[in-house]
Amino acid sequence: MSKSKPVFSSSIGKKLIMSLTGIFLCLFLVVHLVGNLQLFKDDAGLAFNKYAYFMTHFTPIKVVSYLLYASVIVHVIYAITLSMKNKAARPIGYAKYDGQANSKWNSRNMGILGTVILVFLATHMSNFWWKFHNDEVPYIEYRTDLATGQTTARELQASEFHDYQETVENNVQIVKARDLYKQVDFAFKNVALVALYVIAMAALAFHLIHGFQSAFQTLGFNHRRYIGIVRAIGVWVFGVLIPIGFAIMPLFFFFK
């Protein structure tokens, strides 16, 4: 322990941990986006509300969630620590240093991009995670005729809801759930919130384009044979597809 402690408290150790937590967060974004695609189903939110219940009650997923929260906290703390250390090491810039000529815009502004993303995360968690876990969302009942596949939905009063239920009666599937879908629909009628999400996804795109490749470089994956693949995944998957996928969701509900 005495030998490993200086490693992880050093700048190299902190960069290593930031890389590992960053890659873990990238993988989470992929899974989260796939799950949130349920929002686009034309079923009054049935698929999405089932997904929300599964993600908050399946034990392995809950364990991963706690790891996710820890990763976000560690990633942010180490990012701030390294940034402050770098500034302290060189409080006065070189006289002839031209940042624009020596580095890309997103690499020079990772702190600003990270701050925008952090504000977004706090807003996102308060609007959805907090309200869902503290019973501040509506309740809904779905009835699906298993013979025809037709689904009807009605809002439940608080007295009619006790917990998530999924039963079958007379060939009709009945699902009672917290209606997180309606909370999403309500929240994204707010133009300021939609604008924040779109801006945050733009910040996320620039953050990931630099951060994804940088993480693999820190881990030693910088060989010419595969650095092109890493760069392509960082740009097109994490810098384009995923941010656009998340940005489309608030826009979809706002203009729906």
From TrEMBL:
Keywords recorded for this protein, A-Z: Membrane, Transmembrane, Transmembrane helix
TM helices/strands, residue ranges: 63-82, 110-130, 191-212, 233-255
Keyword Transmembrane included in the entry's annotation: yes
Gene3D superfamilies reported for this sequence: Fumarate reductase/succinate dehydrogenase, transmembrane subunit
Superkingdom of this protein's organism: Bacteria
Listed InterPro entries: Cytochrome_b-558 (IPR011138), SQR/QFR_C/D (IPR034804)
NCBIfam families per record: sdhC_b558_fam (TIGR02046)
Descriptive protein name: Succinate dehydrogenase / fumarate reductase cytochrome b subunit
